[in-house]
Amino acid sequence: MKNKEDFLYDVRIVNRNIRDGAVSKKDYDKYIESLPDVEDKSEPLIIDDEPEALSAAADEAGEEAAEDEEE
Q1: pTM (predicted TM-score)
Q2: CB-based contacts of 27, cutoff 8 Å, min separation 6
Q3: What is d(CA 59, CA 27) in angstroms, rounded to the nearest whole number?
Q4: What is the CA radius of gyration of the chain?
Q5: Looking at the chain, which terminus has fewer C-beta neighbours within 10 angstroms, N or C?
Q6: CA 68 from centroid of its chain's CA atoms
C-alpha cells in the first residue's frame, strides 16, 4: 500500500471503517470504481479436488512424515 489513505479501503477492515464513519460507503464505491481492471493479468487457479487425488496426497504426506520420524 502506498499511503495511509489506502488502509481505509483495505478489504480486511473496510467494513469496520464504514461502520465507524472513517469512510463513507459512497467514497468506498468510488474508490473501487477507480481501481484499474487487471483481469488480463490473472491466471486460472485449478484445484484438483477429486477424492482419489486427495486421498493419494494424504497417503504421501503420511509416508513422508513416517520417514522423517525414522531419521
Answers
A1: 0.54
A2: none
A3: 50
A4: 22
A5: C
A6: 31
pLDDT tens figures, 3-58: 788 788 999 999 999 999 999 999 999 999 999 999 999 999 888 776 666 566 66
Place of cell 479501503: 9
Sequence-ordered list of residues with C-beta below 8 angstroms from that of 31, at least 6 positions apart, any chain: 9
C-alpha angle 35/40/43, rounded to 5°? 110
* Distance in angstroms (rounded) separating the CA atoms of residues 62 and 25: 49
Whether residue 1 has pLDDT greater than 50: no
pLDDT for 53: 60
Pair 52, 46: CB distance under 8 Å: no
Cell of 40: 488480463
Give residue 5's pLDDT. Answer: 80
